[in-house]
């Protein structure tokens, strides 16, 4: 691992400057007058870093894994089989297009040479944005030939994990893609079990400890339960995952659905969650009610009824202070009538 030093920070900043347009040729990462001068004391006083106050941060990705920074023709780039983020027309993609149009590509994509072409490791959305702008090439950092697939997936995870617009399902894919090659002995269920039970293991195996330690380094302040919850999303049916990606199901509701994926009426409940935009508390009530039934199955109308009833409860709470005494008394009588109907139905059942 490479320590973050003032020199490294300066070099990385210079690395992001616009390279010379030499298709397929190496691009110098430093201007000519600075390429042989790495002395941080030559920086302006305002930019110098006090080494005594510099925390011993370790870079999560070793820069020695990369070789050149080059301009690659867009028509020579192919998507990775382990794509984390789906490239689709969204507001964030349009924002990226405008940003690149104004400031160019600040962070080069990461690519790997495969025979006569290149595979995108990180930066599918940047590539798509450049295509929308009609550009012919894009800046890319090339991985060295000896970089392993687990190292490649780690780089992919690091590149995406702190992005503000990263969706929970995208983080789930990134974690799974990395674990799939670093721990081929674990399937998805095994991965979820590891992060669910690790803190309770009296003496974890060296391999499990190394895996969890590696993930902790990558996820920062996120907890192991977050890793477990994200991975659990991948066990949901494809149509449910697609609804999560399209923001038709919230992350909190997705976690509830994932924890009840073996429920006999899960398909109907999922459909109702999407159609009625159920809130988290409403969805929890549906599953809690289903536990009290003999077979656990729900009437197809029940979830819609619960949603309407809870909405009514919220409206009553909101307008209660504005009601007159007569209105409150009438409302009280109506609720007694509803309660009597429910109790009669329960006795008949």
Protein model, in words:
By secondary structure, the chain is α/β, with parallel strands linked by helices. The protein folds into three domains: 6-160, Conserved hypothetical protein from pyrococcus furiosus pfu- 392566-001, ParB domain (Alpha-Beta Complex); 168-233, no CATH class; 238-348, no CATH class. Helix content is 50%, strand content 8%. The chain has helices spanning 6-15, 91-103, 124-132, 149-160, 168-182, 188-197, 206-219, 224-233, 238-245, 251-259, 266-275, 280-292, 302-319, 325-348, and strands at 66-73, 77-78, 109-114, 117-122, 137-143. Helix 4 runs antiparallel to helix 5, helix 5 (168-182) packs across helix 8 and helix 8 (224-233) packs across helix 10. It is elongated.
Descriptors:
Conserved hypothetical protein from pyrococcus furiosus pfu- 392566-001, ParB domain, 349 residues, single chain, five-stranded mixed sheet, 5 strands, alpha/beta
What's the layout of helices and strands?
Elements: H1 6-15, E1 66-73, E2 77-78, H2 91-103, E3 109-114, E4 117-122, H3 124-132, E5 137-143, H4 149-160, H5 168-182, H6 188-197, H7 206-219, H8 224-233, H9 238-245, H10 251-259, H11 266-275, H12 280-292, H13 302-319, H14 325-348
Parallel strand pairs: 2-4, 3-5
Antiparallel strand pairs: 1-5, 3-4
The chain-level structural class is alpha/beta
Largest sheet: 5 strands, mixed
The CA-CA distance between the termini, in Å, is 68 Å
Q: Which stretches are poorly predicted, pLDDT < 50 over at least 5 residues?
A: 1-59
Beta-strand percent range: 5-15%
Number of domains: 3
Mean pLDDT across all amino acids: 75
The percent range for helix content is 40-55%
Query: Strands of the biggest beta sheet: in what spatial order?
Result: 1-5-3-4-2
Work out the helix count: 14
Q: Which term fits the overall shape?
A: elongated
CATH superfamily of the largest domain: Conserved hypothetical protein from pyrococcus furiosus pfu- 392566-001, ParB domain
CATH architecture of the largest domain: Alpha-Beta Complex
């Amino acid at each position: 691992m490479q320590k973050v030093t003032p020199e490294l920070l300066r070099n990385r900043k210079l690395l992001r400057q616009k390279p010379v347009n030499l298709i397929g040729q190496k691009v110098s990462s430093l201007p000519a007058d600075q390429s042989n001068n790495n002395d941080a004391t030559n920086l302006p006083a305002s930019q110098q870093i006090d080494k005594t106050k510099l925390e011993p941060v370790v870079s999560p990705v070793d820069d020695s894994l990369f070789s050149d920074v080059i301009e690659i023709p867009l028509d020579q780039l192919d998507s990775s089989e382990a794509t984390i983020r789906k490239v689709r027309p969204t507001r964030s993609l349009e924002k990226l297009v405008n940003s690149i149009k104004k400031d160019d590509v600040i962070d080069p994509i990461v690519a790997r040479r495969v025979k006569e072409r290149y595979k995108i490791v990180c930066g599918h959305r940047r590539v798509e944005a450049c295509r929308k702008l009609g550009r012919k090439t894009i800046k890319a950092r090339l991985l060295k030939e000896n970089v392993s697939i687990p190292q490649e997936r780690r780089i992919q995870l690091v590149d995406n994990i702190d992005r503000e617009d990263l969706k929970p399902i995208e983080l789930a894919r990134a974690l799974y893609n990395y674990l799939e090659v670093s721990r081929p002995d674990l399937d998805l269920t095994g991965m979820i079990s590891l992060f669910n039970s690790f803190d309770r293991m009296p003496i974890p195996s060296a391999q499990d400890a190394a895996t969890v330690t590696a993930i902790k380094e990558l996820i920062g302040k996120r907890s192991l339960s977050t890793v477990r919850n994200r991975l659990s999303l991948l066990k949901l049916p494809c149509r449910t995952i697609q609804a999560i990606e399209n923001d038709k199901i919230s992350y909190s509701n997705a976690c509830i659905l994932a924890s009840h994926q073996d429920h006999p009426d899960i398909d109907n409940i999922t459909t109702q969650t999407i159609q009625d935009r159920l809130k988290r508390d409403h969805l929890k009530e549906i599953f809690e009610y289903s536990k009290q039934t003999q077979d656990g199955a729900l009437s197809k109308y029940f979830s819609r009824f619960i949603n309407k009833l809870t909405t009514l409860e919220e409206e009553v709470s909101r307008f209660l202070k504005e009601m007159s005494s007569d209105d409150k008394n009438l409302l009280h009588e109506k609720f007694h009538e509803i309660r009597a109907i429910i109790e009669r139905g329960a006795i008949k059942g």
